[in-house]
Specification:
Keywords: Ribonucleoprotein, Ribosomal protein. Helices cover 65% and strands 0% of the residues. It is mainly alpha-helical.
């Protein structure tokens, strides 16, 4: 269960933190998925697409570690 503490009565900051945690844990995706019934055939297609996406991401990370492709530089926050 996601738990967020409100510090110094700053509700806006707590709400942002809650949304970020929900997104990271996949709660928002699950809520959207459960709004409407998903046919078993659609579920198989979606899961296959997710597996392909995960495999590509893993291959990209491995290639970056081995130095075959350059890693993306994250912009600095100011």
């Amino acid at each position: 269960m996601v738990e967020i503490y409100v510090r110094q009565n700053n509700v806006d900051q707590a709400l942002r933190a809650l949304k970020k945690k929900m997104q990271n844990e996949g709660i928002l995706r699950e809520i959207k998925a459960r709004k409407h019934f998903e046919k078993p055939s659609e579920k198989r297609v979606r899961e296959a697409q997710e597996a392909v996406r995960r495999a590509r991401k893993l291959a990209r990370k491995r290639a970056q570690i081995e130095g075959l492709i350059p890693s993306k530089k994250k912009p600095r926050r100011r």
